[in-house]
Amino acid sequence: MSKLRLITANLVDTINKLTEEADKIYILTSFIMLSGVKKILSALKSVSLRGAEIKICTGDYLHITQPDALQLFTKELPDAEVRMWNSGGKSFHPYLFRFKEKGHVIVGSSNMSASALTSGVERNLHAPSAVDDEIFGKALEEFEQLFYHEVTIPVNKETVKQYRKSYDYFHEKQSVVKYWTETEETEIMFSEPEDQAEIIAEPPGNYVINHETLEPRPAQKVALLALENTMEEEYDRALVVMATGLGKTYLAAFFAQNFNRILFIAHQKELLEQAKQSFSHVMPDRLAGILNADYKEKDADMLFASVSTLGLSQHLHSFQTDDFDLIIVDEFHHAAANSYQKVLDYFEPTFLLGITATPDRMDNKDVYSICEGNTAYRIHFLEAIQKQWLAPIHYWNL
């Protein structure tokens, strides 16, 4: 039986060995240095060439991450998704883990530098899923929440160029940190991360109650009419783009009343809980459940699922492909990611609805094609302000 294993040296050997058989690799690390990238790049390139999914998330705290390291990833691993936590000065010191279909998680102190991966004084625990499948599921969900958080940005040629400017400027003023980055071997340990930036949730709003039934707001009424027209035109999928504050989640709930069984997909726990509450307000007689690392309430009429949990084979294949009449994808600009595509390729709903405030991705991946180019309704926040559906913006010089 597989057991927990403490790794005190040469973590790179374990990573490279597991990488050889992996079809998915997720890495979360405080910072990335060129020396560390070179230690694992060959193995990552090999699995990328055979179609493995690679996601890497790092941080910009104190500008320890090297632009050259990020540039090497963009050049040598063009199919990998690399994102950076845009800290705004907040510390970012999570763990590192990687994932393959069988479920291996490494949690510990090592970051992506040559010293940390080889001879540095480090402590890392290697946990195969055979030890505890819940550890694996929870680690994956936590990764997804950070990877797609609002303050992370995609790493590409343009963002690396921008980061290099701030990196060079920072190190002109901070000679001690520059010494650390030149040696590429000294490990810097940070404090526990401060509270993460809050998710911008849709405000509850003042919904009109008519004989104990919630009524949509004006913007939602227009969007619902557009969706009805879309279905009359025999589209089976659509995108709705609405500015934050106009009630995308409630719009989806009002639209969902026309369907029997509903699947709502998001990448963060808070979004699932918010959606469950909103849908239950609109349809209090229907059973609502959550599927994520903590809850497995699969028999619900309205299921609110974490994409990372739902995408695991043991959960995804526990459903029939036509189990859901309506699938709703929140923050649809993430839907081009492989984790979403695996789920969307599996199910065959009567209708697929994507909702987002920001459909255009910085990595140029096309989300519109997922909805066959059918944008049923779009309203920018400036137009919403003009219609008096949102409050105007006021600025003060302090």
Tell me what you see in this structure:
The protein is of the alpha/beta class and about 400 residues long. It folds into two domains: about 5-185, Endonuclease, Chain A (2-Layer Sandwich), CATH 3.30.870; about 210-385, P-loop containing nucleotide triphosphate hydrolases (Rossmann fold, 3-Layer(aba) Sandwich). The chain is built from 14 helices and 16 strands. It has helices spanning about 10-20, 35-50, 65-75, 115, 135-145, 155-175, 175-185, 220-230, 250-255, 270-280, 305-310, 315, 340-345, 380-385, and strands spanning about 5, 25-30, 55-60, 80-85, 105-110, 125-130, 150-155, 210, 215, 235-240, 260-265, 290, 300-305, 325-330, 350-355, 375-380. The strands form four sheets. It has a seven-stranded parallel sheet. A four-stranded mixed sheet has the order 2-3-4-7, with helices on both faces. β3, α3 (about 65-75) and β4 form a beta-alpha-beta unit. It starts with a strand and ends in a 12-residue tail after the last helix. The relative contact order is 0.12. The model is unreliable at about 175-205 (pLDDT under 50).
